[in-house]
C-alpha cells in the first residue's frame, strides 16, 4: 500500500467503505482484491461479457471498465448485496427454481442486470428482457431458463415498484 | 432396478445442489481463492507456428532475480502431457510446433509485474515451414508429425460398397466443412499449485477430470499416487474445454510452485485462453451415396478428415466418434468410412461437446437434404424411408435392441413446428419477397458413454458413504461445471436410499477422498456413473440389513441409526461399486464392428430461419428440439442442457468463426469472437419422450452432448429451403451468404456493400 494513493469512499451494499488504492485500478479488482468481495467475476476484461456487472448509482456498469476513482462517493451494489438478511432476493429465488444458473460464473452479473431491468420495468415483456440482458453473456443456458427466471420474479414484483422509479415504462 | 417405478426425487425439479452458493456469490471459483504469500504465474509462448528455438534472452530492463523462471530443464519427470500418446511437451524443448505453445514460465509475488516480464523474454527462432490446413497436411510435405502427418485413421466397412455404384438409380456427392469452435466458457482456465517435499504436489483448479490431471502430474513430477492431489474448485463452464487443458496448466503451476517454494496461482485472461487452449476440430467430410429410385440408401462412401493440430491429444478418440456418427440414424447395407485426423501447426484441437459427432452429423444431415433434392422428394420423407428401427443394424452392425422411436419423434417435431404448412407457405411467399423464410430438420442419434470397450478400460469405481454427523456423501470423481452432476447424483442416491434430497451431498471433488469413477465427459455421468451410484446405494441398504439390523421400509432415523451400528463394527460406512457392462456387449476395436455404445439418445430438431437477401443476414426465428434421452432425471436441468446446447449449435452454424493468421487465433477476444446473446437466440421449444434405459442411472441415457449435434444442419437445411441455395460450410456468416447469393442474383438485384477492412482485427 502506498501513502500516495487516494482514499476512495463508497457505499457498498449499504455499508460505507473506504479503500486506499491506485486510482486507476479497475473497480472489479478493488471489489475482489481490496474488499474481498469475490462474487463479482471477470470473464473478458473488456466490457463484452457482463460477468463483472455491478450497479453504481442506479446504473448497470461493467466494473472491469470503471477506474475506481470514478466510484468515489458512489452507491454500489454487488451480488453479495442482493439477498437481504439471508433472505434470497426474488430474482435469486426465481433463478433457483427455474434453472437460471448453471455453471454460475455469469450469474452474479446476470442477476445485477436482471435486478436493474425489473427495478426500472417491473413487468417487462420478452423483447425488453432480451434487450435488458443482451450485455450479459451466458454460455450454459441458451438464456431460456434465465428469461423464465426473470418473468417468474417479475410476476412476484408488486405494481407499486413502478412508482418508485420515475422513468419506469 | 427401479426404472419404471414411481420415484419421489428422481424426476422432480429439486433445487440445484450448489445453486444458492452460486446465486449469492459465495461459490469459490479458482480465482476467488487467496492464499497467504501466494505468487502468480505467467507463460511465455511461441509466436511462430513452427521452428527451432535458437536462443532465449532476458531483457536487463527487468530485475530477474525477483522472478522464478521455469523451463523444460526444470521438469523432474517426463516432459510431456499425455492424454493418449506422449507427443506433447509440457514445455517446448528445442522446437515449437504451434503458435502460443508454452516455452517458459515465470512467477512473481506481484501479478502486475508479470505482463512486462513476459514481453521482456526474447526468443529467437529458425523458422521451419508450417502446415496450417488439412489440405496442406495431406500433401505430407513437410511431414510435421510421425511419418505421414496422420494422427489416427480408421477404415470402417460394411457390405460391399463397390458393387452398388453401377446399378444405383442415383449417386449423390457432396463435400461439407466445419470450422474450429471455441468453448467460450465464461470462466477462463486457472490453477493454484502448492508443492512440498513431504506432501508432493497439490493443485486446485477449474477442471472436468481430476484423475486426468492426477495422471499428468504423476508423470511430470515423477511422484507416486499418494503424493499427487487434485482438487476441483467451482468450475465456470467447460463443455470439453477443461477435459485436457487443465493437465497442462496444472503441471505449469506445479512446476512454478516447486521451484519458487511458494503457492502459485495461474489464471489466464481471455486473450490467452482463446489463443492457447483447445477448440473443436475443423472437419471436411465428403459423401458419395447411392440410392434407389425411391430414395432408399444403397451405399454410403464417406471420406472424413479432421484437423488435429500439432499434437495428438484426444484427436484419435474424437475421430472415432466422428466416424461412428458419420452415417446418421439410417439403415444402409453397404458402407465404407475412411477417416483421418491430420496434424497441422495449430494449437491442438480437443474435446468439445459432441466430440466429433457434430462435425459428422452436420455432413450427413446436410447431405440427406441434397439427396432429397436430387430425388425431388421432401427431406422429411427421405429420412423416414431410411430410419433405423428396433431390430435393425447400424454401421457397425450393432443390433438396435432398445426401442427406437424416430418416427414418433419426427411426428411430434413436425406437429409442434407446423413444418409442412410452413414449408408450403414459405415456398409461396418467398418468391415475391427479399426476406425469405425457410424451415429445415435434422435427425440424429448420439452414443452415450465411452466408445466400444472404453467403459471397461475405465473400470470406474463409485459409491456412497455416510459421515459421522449423519450425511450421506456421493463418492465420485465426476464433477459439476453447470450440467447438474451434483444434483442428479444426489437425487439418485437419495431416491435409492429412501432419504430426503437434503440428506445427501457430494463428497469434495478431491482425489485424496474420492474414487476414480472416470472423467466427466462423453455424456456418461447420468447413465454410467448414475447407475453406479444407484447400485452402490442399494448395496448399502443390503449391507445395513445384513450387518446392522436395518428393517424393511425403515424411517429416515432408523437408517442413520443402522449406519451408526455398522460404523461401530466396521469402522466406516461406505459402499462402492465397479462398472459392469450391460450384457451382450461385443466390440472389435480393429474392425470397428459390434456394440459401439451401450445406448443412444435420439432426436429430431427443426429450425425456422429468416434470410434477408438485401443485408445477407440469416437468423434463427424459432427452434424445436424433440428427443428421447431415456429417463429424464431432472426436468429443469434437462431442459437447460438442451437449450444451452442448441444455443451453442446456433453459434456454431451462424456466428462463431475462429480467424487464423499464420496459425495464431487473430480474433482472440470476446469483442470479435461472437457468440449468440440474449438478443439473438430464438425461442427454443424442448420436448422429451421418455423410454427408461435399464442399464442407466434410474433409466437415464446421455443428454449433455446431443443438443450440439442437430442445430447446425437443421439451420443450414432451413437456409437452403429459404434460398434454394446449397450452403455446405459452417460457420455461415453474412459475408459468406453475400458471396454465394450475390453470385446467383441478377446484377440489378445486387446490393454492394462499401469496401471495408475485415472487422475481426
Strand content of chain B: 15-25%
CATH architecture of the largest domain in chain A: Roll
Sheet/helix structural class of chain A: alpha+beta
Indicate the low-confidence ranges of chain A by residue numbers. 160-169
Number of helices of chain A: 6
Largest beta sheet of chain A: what is the strand line-up?
2-1-5-3-4
Termini of chain A, distance in Å? Answer: 46 Å
User: What is the number of beta strands of chain B?
Assistant: 28
Total number of beta strands of chain A = 5
In round numbers, the mean pLDDT of chain A is 93
Helix content of chain B: 25-40%
Number of domains of chain A: 2
Compact description:
The complex is a heterodimer of chains A (169) and B (761). Chain A is α+β, with helices and mostly antiparallel strands.
Protein described:
The complex is a heterodimer of chains A (169) and B (761). Chain A is of the alpha+beta class and 169 residues long. Chain A contains 6 helices and 5 strands, in the order ββαβββααααα. Chain A has a 5-stranded mixed beta sheet with strand order 2-1-5-3-4, sandwiched between helices. In chain A, strand 3 and strand 4 (59-62) form a beta hairpin. In chain A, helix 2 (90-98) crosses helix 5 (144-156) and helix 3 packs across helix 4. The radius of gyration of chain A is 16 Å and the shape is elongated. The termini of chain A are far apart. Chain B has 761 residues and is an alpha+beta fold. Chain B folds into 3 domains: 19-28 and 460-578, Aldehyde oxidase/xanthine dehydrogenase, molybdopterin binding domain (Aldehyde Oxidoreductase, domain 4), CATH 3.30.365; 33-128 and 189-267, Aldehyde oxidase/xanthine dehydrogenase, a/b hammerhead (Aldehyde Oxidoreductase, domain 3), CATH 3.90.1170.50; 283-451 and 591-749, 2-Layer Sandwich (Aldehyde Oxidoreductase, domain 4), CATH 3.30.365. Helix content of chain B is 29%, strand content 24%. Chain B has 19 helices and 28 strands. In chain B, a hairpin with a 3-residue loop joins strand 9 and strand 10. In chain B, helix 4 packs across helix 5 and helix 8 (357-375) packs parallel to helix 18 (711-723).
Amino acid at each position: 500500500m502506498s501513502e500516495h494513493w487516494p482514499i476512495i469512499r463508497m457505499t457498498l451494499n449499504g455499508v460505507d467503505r473506504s479503500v486506499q488504492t491506485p486510482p486507476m485500478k479497475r473497480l472489479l479488482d478493488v471489489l475482489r482484491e481490496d474488499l474481498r468481495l469475490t462474487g463479482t467475476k471477470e470473464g473478458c476484461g473488456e466490457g463484452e461479457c457482463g460477468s463483472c456487472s455491478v450497479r453504481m448509482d442506479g446504473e448497470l456498469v461493467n466494473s472491469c471498465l470503471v477506474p475506481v476513482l470514478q466510484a468515489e462517493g458512489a452507491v454500489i451494489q454487488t451480488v453479495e448485496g442482493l439477498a437481504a438478511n439471508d433472505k434470497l432476493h426474488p430474482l435469486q429465488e426465481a433463478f433457483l427454481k427455474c434453472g437460471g444458473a448453471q455453471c454460475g460464473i455469469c450469474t452474479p452479473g446476470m442477476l445485477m442486470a436482471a435486478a436493474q431491468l425489473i427495478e426500472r420495468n417491473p413487468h417487462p415483456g420478452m423483447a425488453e428482457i432480451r434487450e435488458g440482458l443482451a450485455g450479459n453473456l451466458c454460455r450454459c443456458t441458451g438464456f431460456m431458463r434465465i428469461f423464465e427466471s426473470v418473468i417468474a420474479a417479475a410476476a412476484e414484483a408488486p405494481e407499486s415498484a413502478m412508482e418508485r422509479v420515475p422513468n419506469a415504462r | 432396478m427401479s426404472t419404471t417405478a414411481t420415484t419421489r426425487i428422481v424426476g422432480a425439479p429439486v433445487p440445484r445442489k450448489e445453486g444458492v452458493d452460486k446465486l449469492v456469490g459465495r461459490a469459490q471459483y479458482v480465482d476467488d481463492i487467496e492464499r497467504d504469500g501466494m505468487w502468480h504465474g505467467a507463460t511465455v509462448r511461441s509466436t511462430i507456428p513452427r521452428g527451432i528455438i535458437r536462443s532465449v534472452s532476458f531483457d536487463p530492463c527487468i530485475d530477474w532475480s525477483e522472478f522464478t523462471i521455469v523451463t523444460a530443464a526444470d521438469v523432474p519427470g517426463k516432459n510431456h502431457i499425455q492424454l493418449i500418446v506422449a507427443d506433447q511437451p509440457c514445455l517446448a524443448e528445442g522446437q515449437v510446433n504451434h503458435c502460443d505453445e508454452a516455452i517458459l514460465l515465470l512467477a512473481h509475488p506481484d501479478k502486475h509485474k508479470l505482463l512486462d516480464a513476459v514481453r521482456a523474454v526474447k526468443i529467437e527462432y529458425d523458422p521451419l515451414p508450417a502446415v496450417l490446413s488439412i489440405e496442406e497436411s495431406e500433401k505430407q510435405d513437410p511431414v510435421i508429425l510421425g511419418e505421414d502427418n496422420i494422427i489416427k485413421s480408421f477404415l470402417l466397412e460394411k457390405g460391399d460398397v463397390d458393387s452398388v455404384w453401377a446399378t444405383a438409380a442415383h449417386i449423390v456427392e457432396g463435400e461439407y466443412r466445419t470450422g474450429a469452435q471455441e468453448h467460450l466458457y465464461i470462466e477462463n482456465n486457472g490453477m493454484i499449485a502448492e508443492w512440498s517435499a513431504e506432501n508432493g504436489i497439490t493443485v486446485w483448479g477449474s477442471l472436468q477430470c481430476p484423475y486426468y490431471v492426477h495422471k499428468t502430474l504423476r508423470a511430470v513430477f515423477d511422484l507416486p499416487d499418494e503424493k499427487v492431489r487434485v482438487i476441483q474448485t467451482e468450475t465456470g463452464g467447460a463443455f470439453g474445454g477443461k477435459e485436457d487443458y487443465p493437465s497442462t496448466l496444472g503441471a505449469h503451476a506445479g512446476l512454478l510452485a516447486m521451484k519458487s517454494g511458494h503457492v502459485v496461482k495461474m489464471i489466464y485472461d481471455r486473450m490467452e485462453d482463446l489463443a492457447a487452449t483447445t477448440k473443436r476440430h475443423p472437419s471436411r467430410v465428403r459423401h458419395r451415396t447411392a440410392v434407389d429410385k425411391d430414395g432408399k440408401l444403397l451405399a454410403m462412401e464417406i471420406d472424413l478428415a479432421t484437423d488435429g493440430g500439432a499434437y495428438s491429444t484426444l484427436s484419435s478418440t474424437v475421430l472415432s466418434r466422428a466416424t461412428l456418427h458419420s452415417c446418421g440414424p439410417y439403415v444402409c447395407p453397404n458402407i465404407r468410412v475412411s477417416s483421418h485426423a491430420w496434424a497441422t501447426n495449430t494449437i491442438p484441437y480437443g474435446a468439445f461437446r459432441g466430440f466429433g459427432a457434430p462435425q459428422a452429423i452436420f455432413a450427413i444431415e446436410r447431405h440427406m437434404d441434397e439427396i432429397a433434392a436430387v430425388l425431388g422428394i421432401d427431406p422429411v420423407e427421405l429420412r423416414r424411408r431410411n430410419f433405423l428401427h428396433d431390430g435393425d443394424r447400424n454401421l457397425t452392425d450393432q443390433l438396435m435392441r432398445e426401442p427406437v422411436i424416430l418416427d414418433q419423434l419426427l411426428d411430434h417435431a413436425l406437429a409442434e413446428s407446423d413444418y409442412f404448412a410452413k414449408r408450403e407457405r414459405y415456398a409461396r411467399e418467398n418468391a415475391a419477397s427479399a426476406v425469405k423464410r425457410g424451415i429445415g430438420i435434422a435427425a440424429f442419434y448420439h452414443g452415450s458413454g465411452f466408445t466400444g470397450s472404453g467403459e471397461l478400460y475405465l473400470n470406474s469405481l463409485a459409491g456412497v458413504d455416510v459421515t459421522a454427523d449423519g450425511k450421506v456423501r456421493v463418492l465420485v470423481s465426476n464433477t459439476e461445471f453447470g450440467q447438474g452432476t451434483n444434483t442428479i447424483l444426489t437425487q439418485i442416491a437419495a431416491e435409492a436410499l429412501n432419504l430426503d434430497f437434503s440428506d445427501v451431498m457430494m463428497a469434495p471433488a478431491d482425489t485424496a477422498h474420492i474414487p476414480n469413477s472416470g472423467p466427466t465427459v462423453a455424456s456418461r455421468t447420468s447413465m454410467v456413473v448414475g447407475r453406479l451410484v444407484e447400485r452402490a446405494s442399494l448395496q448399502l441398504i443390503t449391507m445395513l440389513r445384513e450387518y446392522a439390523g436395518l428393517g424393511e421400509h425403515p424411517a429416515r432415523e432408523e437408517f442413520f441409526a443402522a449406519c451408526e451400528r455398522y460404523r461401530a463394527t466396521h469402522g466406516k460406512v461406505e459402499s462402492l461399486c465397479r462398472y459392469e457392462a450391460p450384457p451382450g456387449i461385443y466390440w472389435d476395436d480393429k474392425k470397428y464392428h459390434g456394440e459401439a455404445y451401450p445406448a443412444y439418445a435420439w432426436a429430431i430438431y427443426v429450425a425456422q430461419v429468416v434470410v434477408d437477401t438485401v443485408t445477407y443476414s440469416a437468423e434463427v426465428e424459432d427452434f424445436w428440439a424433440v428427443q428421447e434421452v431415456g429417463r429424464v432425471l431432472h426436468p429443469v436441468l434437462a431442459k437447460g442442457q438442451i437449450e444451452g446446447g442448441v444455443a451453442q449449435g446456433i453459434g456454431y452454424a451462424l456466428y462463431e468463426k475462429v480467424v487464423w493468421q499464420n496459425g495464431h487465433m487473430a480474433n482472440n477476444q470476446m469483442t470479435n469472437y461472437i457468440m449468440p446473446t440474449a438478443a439473438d437466440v430464438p425461442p427454443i421449444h424442448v420436448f422429451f419422450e421418455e423410454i427408461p434405459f435399464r442399464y442407466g442411472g434410474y433409466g437415464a441415457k446421455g443428454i449433455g452432448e446431443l443438443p450440439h449435434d442437430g442445430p447446425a444442419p437443421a439451420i443450414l437445411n432451413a437456409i437452403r429451403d429459404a434460398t434454394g441455395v446449397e450452403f455446405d460450410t459452417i460457420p455461415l456468416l453474412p459475408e459468406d451468404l453475400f458471396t454465394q447469393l450475390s453470385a446467383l442474383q441478377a446484377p440489378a438485384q445486387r446490393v454492394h456493400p462499401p469496401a471495408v477492412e475485415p472487422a475481426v482485427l
